[in-house]
């Protein structure tokens, strides 16, 4: 996207209309690079509130793809004018982007500005990155492994963006864990979002969800927001290595629920949602973890000899 800036000039020529072509300059406002094919090109207002002189507006963004198909794209925004304050949502995720198409972000960002102003898209700069080129493969940097002792070796497949994770393992609980972990590195703050759409009932306490874990040690510190087949959703954590695991109680939830787990410093915050826009906080815990940790999807059958399968869609990590 470019802004056309016309610099006014004067002349004694009676036929001069006030604009000279050599005084027209083009200003790039989207940090576009040569060969770039992905551009944030528009906005969809989700909500708006007014408090005194302040207006707070939540948007989804629209991504224009002028090139070939890609599966997952992350766009990070920076604000170019102090008149606008980014309240939340500095990164947006776009999924399953067809060639030569326009796609709307799954999540939102929120701005606060004076109500006398009109929202000006030129005050936003977007850095757009492909994070998953192929919806049938794990993204670059992701891997999977069994954690602890398991009877059946776990596995993961990705098909059209759906992560299908099969696992066994006694549990993720108490002093040590047995499960399958699909993960990548996280350095410092960040979050993971996923929609869980399937968890086979190998046990009422089979577990599948999003996890941030200090290491692959079976007794590692971790924070885990999880779904069960019969007991709803809960946020559990182990704040001391090889020590007890605790949770903050059960919340009613059904398959199709969105899960989000966020790290801010040593605070770990868990949320659920029905639409990936309106989030409910379900737990928070301080855990002194290393700066570099693992973040991803965790599944256990809670049964030594049986396997379970979980399916996740719209999986993304922000860091």
Account of the protein in words:
By secondary structure, the protein is mainly beta. The chain contains no helices and 26 strands. Strands 11-16-25-18-19-20-21 form a 7-stranded antiparallel β-sheet, with no helix packed on it. A 7-stranded antiparallel β-sheet has the order 12-13-26-17-22-23-24, with no helix packed on it. It folds into 2 domains: 36-132, Immunoglobulin-like (Sandwich); 143-318, Jelly Rolls. The chain has strands at residues 2-6, 24-28, 38-51, 54-65, 70-79, 85-88, 91-97, 101-104, 109-114, 124-132, 143-147, 155-159, 162-169, 172-173, 176-177, 179-187, 190-199, 207-213, 222-227, 233-238, 246-251, 258-264, 267-273, 279-286, 292-300, 303-318.
What general outline do the C-alpha atoms trace?
Answer: globular
Main sheet attributes: strand count, strand direction, barrel closure: 7 strands, antiparallel
Overall pLDDT metric: 92
Percentage of β-strand residues: over 45%
- Beginning-to-end CA distance, first to last residue: 26 Å
Q: What is the domain total for the residues?
A: 2
Name of the top-level CATH class of the largest domain: Mainly Beta
Which residues form runs of ≥5 with pLDDT under 50? none
Q: How helical, in percent, are the residues?
A: under 10%
CATH topology of the largest domain: Jelly Rolls
What is the radius of gyration computed over CA atoms, rounded to a whole number of angstroms? 23 Å
Q: Major sheet: order of its strands? A: 11-16-25-18-19-20-21
Structural class by SSE content: mainly beta
Order of H and E elements: EEEEEEEEEEEEEEEEEEEEEEEEEE
Instruction: Report the oligomer.
Output: single chain
Number of strands: 26
Helix count, DSSP H or I runs of 4 or more residues: 0
CATH-derived architecture of the largest domain: Sandwich
């Amino acid at each position: 996207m470019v802004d056309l800036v016309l610099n006014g000039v004067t002349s004694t020529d009676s036929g001069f209309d006030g604009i000279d072509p050599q005084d027209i300059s083009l200003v790039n406002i989207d940090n576009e690079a040569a060969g770039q094919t992905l551009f944030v090109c528009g906005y969809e207002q989700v909500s708006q509130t007014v408090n005194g002189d302040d207006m707070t507006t939540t948007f989804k963004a629209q991504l224009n793809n002028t090139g070939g198909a890609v599966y997952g794209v992350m766009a990070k925004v920076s604000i170019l004018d102090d008149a606008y304050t980014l309240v939340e949502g500095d990164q947006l995720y776009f999924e399953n982007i067809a060639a030569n198409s326009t796609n709307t972000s799954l999540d939102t960002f929120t701005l606060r500005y004076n109500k006398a102003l009109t929202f000006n898209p030129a005050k936003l700069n977007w850095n757009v990155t492909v994070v998953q080129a192929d919806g049938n493969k794990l993204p670059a940097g992701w891997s999977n492994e069994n954690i602890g002792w398991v009877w059946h070796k776990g596995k993961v497949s990705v098909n059209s963006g759906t992560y299908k994770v099969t696992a066994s393992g006694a549990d993720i609980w108490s002093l040590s864990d047995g499960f399958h972990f699909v993960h990548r590195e996280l350095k410092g703050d960040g979050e993971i979002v996923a929609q869980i759409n399937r968890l086979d009932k190998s046990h009422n306490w089979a577990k599948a969800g999003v996890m941030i874990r200090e290491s692959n040690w079976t007794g590692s510190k971790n924070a885990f927001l999880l779904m069960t087949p019969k007991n709803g959703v809960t946020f559990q954590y182990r704040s001391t290595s090889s020590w007890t695991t605790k949770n903050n109680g059960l919340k009613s939830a059904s398959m199709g629920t969105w899960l989000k787990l966020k790290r801010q410093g040593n605070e770990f915050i868990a949320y659920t949602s029905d639409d990936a826009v309106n989030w409910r906080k379900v737990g928070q815990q301080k855990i002194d973890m290393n700066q570099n940790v693992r973040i991803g999807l965790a599944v256990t059958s809670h049964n030594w000899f049986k396997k379970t399968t979980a399916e996740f869609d719209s999986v993304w990590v922000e860091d």
